Fold this protein.
Amino acid sequence: MATAPQEVTEISAGGHPVVLGRDALRVLDRRLGVEDHSAAFILGDENTLRHCLPELLAQVPRLRDARTLVIPPGERSKDIAISGEIWRHLAAEAADREALLVCLGGGVVTDLGGFVAATFKRGIRCIHVPTSLMGMVDAAIGGKTGIDLGGVKNLVGVFHDPLAVYIHLPFLKSLGKRELLNGLAEMLKHGLVWDAALWEAIGKAPLHDINALTPLVERSAAIKAEVVKADPRETGLRRVLNFGHTIGHGIEAHSWESPQRALLHGEAVAIGMICEAWLSWRLDVLDREANDRIAAQLLALYKPYQFDSADNHRLIELMRNDKKNSAGRFRFTLLTAIGKARTDVNVTAAQVQEALEHYRLLVRG
Ligand SMILES: NC(=O)c1ccc[n+]([C@@H]2O[C@H](COP(=O)([O-])OP(=O)(O)OC[C@H]3O[C@@H](n4cnc5c(N)ncnc54)[C@H](O)[C@@H]3O)[C@@H](O)[C@H]2O)c1
Ligand SMILES: [Zn+2]
């Protein structure tokens, strides 16, 4: 009997492929039949196992015998004690070097699962099935793994490419709106640094409609894959992806110390992008009109973050702690146009402060 052709696209992220499209999970099932493994384990958090595991098992019957490992949801699970529990669990189940770990979840599950896979018995294979928007367009792609230590994010980790990343858009149906906007910030960033058409299209898309979002998510994942492929170990080009992140990381860390609700990474990056687009204009590399359009679109999507002038000093201190700002110098990725970025631009602390002040006045209630 003839079967319908499968609808998938496969793109290379250098060290691993990314499989996209309606039948991505069916391709995973077929490949599991070809690539042999001794035992399969599925790692997820409580939410992703509840919302996404039934669909995964329905489309990937070859995983029905896999044992599941569950972690609590949230960043706190990117922890050495949780890694230890998973290592011990794998050992108790007699997992050998041919075991396979399928990471079903957001960036927490793929970062942690990738790290555990990289280190267990000096490295077993893993597959990423991202379920959050952040995971699909960013975290699951590129082979960076890691856990947090002593309150510092991603302090311990290694590069470990998964066998492949399989992106199944319907998983997004159970994701909350705040988490959707969180991932959308990275998609907007991909548009700003790489693809003006993507930026424009996101501005017009009905964000609650997964069908409308699908081609934009796929384009965004393809951009991440393309950049990673060109610079797998982040020695140059990959730094274009840091746009919005220097100031964004400072704002994110500041929000953890403030009485306001802590910001999600993407929410902080959206603010960082407003500030860094303004810096691009201030340093004469971006025109005024582009800067205004960027600010208007981001302000329409993301809630303002309030702080006082007196906080600028602390914000700058937090940015200095960031590993990317070596020796007290600030090196930014700035925009030269919508869709084009320049890396390694030196910026002074006084200019960073001006950018923060610009944002503060823009959103002052
Ligand atoms: N390795 C990289 O290159 C890279 C890049 C970006 C981010 N990251 C890491 O990713 C992490 C953030 O990822 P995240 O934003 O996906 O966070 P997350 O994994 O904590 O997921 C966010 C929340 O959504 C829930 N969730 C996920 N998918 C769901 C679904 N389909 N339905 C219902 N709920 C769902 C999760 O349980 C969690 O509560 C951070 O630790 C960050 O450091 C890594
Ligand atoms: Zn980011």
Q: What stands out?
A: The chain has a mean pLDDT of 95.
